[in-house]
Amino acid sequence: MRYGCSGRIARVDLAKRSYEIEEWDESIARMYLGGSGAATRILLERYPLDASALGPDAPLMLMAGLLTGTMVPTASKCSVCGRSPLTGLWTESTVGGHWPAKFKATGYDGLIITGASEAPVYLLIEEGSVAFGDASDLWGKDTYETSEVLKGRLGEDVIVAAIGPAGENLVNISSIMMGGHDARAAGRTGLGAVMGSKRLKAIAVRGKSRPAVKDASKVQATTRSILETLKKATQMLRDYGTAGAVRAVELTGDLPIRNWAQGSWPEGAAATCGQKIAETILEGHYSCYSCPIRCGKLVRIEAGPYKGTVAHGPEYETAAGFGAMCLNDDLNLLAAANDMCNRYGLDTISTANAVAFAMEAYERGIITREDTGGIEARFGAGTAMLDLVRKIAYKEDIGEVLGQGTKKAAEILGKNSIEFSVHTKGLEYAFHDPRAYTSMAPNYATANRGACHLEALTYFVENKAFPGRFLGLPDEWEPHGTERKAELCVAMQNFMSVFNPLGLCKFLMRGHAGPDVIADWVNGVTGWDLTGSELMRIGERLFNFHRMANVALGISRKDDTLPPRLMVHDRRTGGAAGSLPHIGKMLSEYYALRGWSEEGIPTRERLIDLGLIPETDGLFKVA
Amino acid sequence: MRYGCSGRIARVDLAKRSYEIEEWDESIARMYLGGSGAATRILLERYPLDASALGPDAPLMLMAGLLTGTMVPTASKCSVCGRSPLTGLWTESTVGGHWPAKFKATGYDGLIITGASEAPVYLLIEEGSVAFGDASDLWGKDTYETSEVLKGRLGEDVIVAAIGPAGENLVNISSIMMGGHDARAAGRTGLGAVMGSKRLKAIAVRGKSRPAVKDASKVQATTRSILETLKKATQMLRDYGTAGAVRAVELTGDLPIRNWAQGSWPEGAAATCGQKIAETILEGHYSCYSCPIRCGKLVRIEAGPYKGTVAHGPEYETAAGFGAMCLNDDLNLLAAANDMCNRYGLDTISTANAVAFAMEAYERGIITREDTGGIEARFGAGTAMLDLVRKIAYKEDIGEVLGQGTKKAAEILGKNSIEFSVHTKGLEYAFHDPRAYTSMAPNYATANRGACHLEALTYFVENKAFPGRFLGLPDEWEPHGTERKAELCVAMQNFMSVFNPLGLCKFLMRGHAGPDVIADWVNGVTGWDLTGSELMRIGERLFNFHRMANVALGISRKDDTLPPRLMVHDRRTGGAAGSLPHIGKMLSEYYALRGWSEEGIPTRERLIDLGLIPETDGLFKVA
């Protein structure tokens, strides 16, 4: 690789404290792009897919995208790949901020980390070297402290990725946090615990080599073509962050309330939205590397146990999770819960789901004060939410159960708690309700890493934030119907599949950056001659590639489901009252469109057509 | 009780070889009618609901209905109640023929059998006595032989209920067969194994006391009011038996083909229908006690390993199961499979499902010739079907797995065989497809004993065999829609709930015998003054009563589902091509109509309204 990626990967063995450098070939990038795509391809050759997620043999990969670190707008991201302790499936979790570009500026595209260190360890990645440092004094520290200590030790110009106590404690819903107080999270699917299992506390990076770009002026011209549209469409995000959406999505029934049971909560939504934050506790703004959108926010907590703290502002998912889901309308508590998750290294989506699940279990008498260690864990019960977050990170009392995710928690608690455990394939739902935009139902059911919104974001099309016509789809949708929803889901999953491997942010869609625009950027950076439709084909290939890994682990139609609360529970109020997704119908159409068997298995014909056979023959090794 | 039922129950302890007589009060009948209704009420007071189905403490009850043995047409039935080894739930399985009326003519309404005998035992029930006989020489004999031997020993005027080798071997899908060659089956939910676990081989009955009837002329007048309609509408059943429906249901997509995967099979349906039987192997006709319909048939097997045998003719379910489900178009093999199930004491519905499941597993390579003991177990593969039936009864090779039911079989076989295991709550589906008549979807999902068609028979209304207007429902239906389907399901479940406790056959509906007509018969027999709507209310009470037993055992919305093949698998051909039931929507409406919580739990308000609270307070004891 000459442009975009260097093709160089550092393979690190933590047990031996050694590393090797290898290079991957451009033909891999042509098939799978960079980042999670290329890496997963390489990785699957070498490691059994089903290595115990928290065992020393399980590989953990941090992979910058093909465009990461270039001047392409939002090209800030890397993906963390590995086996999820939460779902048991192969996973990637993508994160922005500045760590990924800085990492790529060391000249490496990725790290493959195996083995477990005896004592806590951190890595320092610089241009041309990987160094191992003693992290014994960091063990137990939160992610912010860890970053601060390492900056003090290694220099202010390093950026640190770290786990907090949750990852150390092997909590299944723990995250990897990047950039200290910047608090960018590889949040979903519990990869913090994988780092923890290797006793790898942190990875500091320092590099200055910008990736080579073939035709900078072409890249800039492409950027200019969408920049005005993008800036105009994202003004709300600059002003209020993603939490600026809370009020609007409450109106459509897209906001989950009281553990997915309640239909509307207008006062609460108004009290916990980004606009309210801007009026009250907003302290500043933040943007990821090379991003003109600047959706990040800082807040100052004004009351409660964390009074005076300057913290990262709650994003939409967090605002919905520690707001509506828990019936908490106190912004200061919300910001505190967010700050605690960032410090402890917990995924806010799964954690908020787990907390709301616990509140419902408590109110139903399935768990008691004895289980909660004396906490009155009711919905809207003030600091109870914060106490539960802490107990999850430290595996105290009921926290030990909740930290295993709501699927396992329901199995442990029994007493029909499965009725209000909201997950697919073990991953808790993101806070966009498939009853409000039914196209999200087939996506949540089939998304490769579990109930992930980011694998499709079809509501961007349904509510016209991204024009469907770019994908050959209509611009008008019946949000509660089934017509063409499977088709929308497939198209968006294919399109979304290229973003992580490229290292781009999906908010580019707000600028109407469709496949052609993305292809132009790829061509500008690499010198290739991809068309938009070829890019979509790569996306389809990547989605199928990931599905094949899941299939090798036993996934099929039986796992492509919605939990009972989202399939049968008809909220009687709000913007999606009376709406329930016809998941059977949409899935049936979905499999047909995908060219999969009616049981959700990619057919040999389709895999040949996508170039995955014979390319990947023998790749999906299961021990 | 003076009329209809005597109120006398014999409580038999097989371990002690002792029995006691007790009487139940008419107020119980007013609440729950007789048979399974009254008995279950009495029983739940005394025995823990969750006693291991095959343990000695589990009670097995045989209960004649309130009208059984009277001159009310079709009043021939009794229910066998207990805990199902197949589903783990409380169950009732109803059977006609002549045993129930003869049993009731001993002066008892029911038997409650507990304990396990050390050596094989049979019971002889006569007027005023229960005797215990040594069944050591009968153990291992089939149900026909058992009947013959006992008739030789006790007199030709006894009628025998017996288990075959399947029940002895504790096969989960075994039946209790009544009347020897008459081959009437308490087929569903595996109660033969409960008898087997008690080493109770048979129950012979001899009695002559007809139940007292308050107003015979009133009963006769009511009968006259529907008899012409009934006879006219059931001419097809008299001519061809229930298997006469095979061709017609194939046209609508209601016939399951090739383990529920194929959409049409016209030649096969024509080859295996009752009309074809009438043209070829039909030998005679049979009717249950007091039944003008006479749907039973006898056939003479003309070819194959059972050539020359005169056997009970396959009914619709059996014809569909060992015909279309297994792609077998050979009537002689079909009749042989039926005969073997009757002799071994196997439920033909669950057994045919298990055989078709095995054929699919074989064709997919999930099981091999090694598992099948050398049988080439392909669809349509001649005598392979018969070999599998035998292996199930004797727990040989793969038969040991299949006899546990397809739910457990799929768990054992793994490899995604759950994708084609077709059950709800562990009970295999009856052969009416919820994709053809979507009203059957909420019924199969919620039917108390699992995927049972008899708890609703909504397709009788959808295809106008019974006028919906009797239940306040329309007469025109969109078979593949959702409109009013939940309402239809609730109404029919409530109505159907009175048939078993009364001892009546649901084919009375063909004579348009609605709630008012049934109430008239009840009043004629008992002297009560029930109205049709009061009767419907009792039906609703009974359905909720049974649901409460299930709820106590952990059942809720999460269990009210369709298997993936029926929810997502869109058959591309046939009369129901493209149809998939919107189960989420229908269930949501269903719970609302039932006055249950959105998680399928009867609300306290509704239970009070139905008179079940405080009546049943403390009744649902779980150990």
Approximate helicity band of chain A? 25-40%
Continuous helix count of chain A = 27
Strand order of the largest sheet of chain A: 2-1-6-3-4-5
Q: How many extended strands of chain A?
A: 17
End-to-end separation of chain A: 32 Å
β-strand amount of chain A: 5-15%
What is the CATH architecture annotation of the largest domain in chain A?
4-Layer Sandwich
User: According to CATH, what is the class of the largest domain in chain A?
Assistant: Alpha Beta
Structural class of chain A: alpha+beta
Number of domains of chain A: 3
CATH superfamily of the largest domain in chain A: Aldehyde ferredoxin oxidoreductase, N-terminal domain
Oligomer: homodimer
Which two protein chains have the largest interface (Cβ within 8 Å of the partner's Cβ), and how many residues from each? Answer: A-B, 27 and 28 residues
Unreliable parts of chain A: none
Radius of gyration of chain A: 22 Å
What is the CATH T-level topology of the largest domain in chain A?
Answer: Aldehyde Ferredoxin Oxidoreductase,  A, domain 1
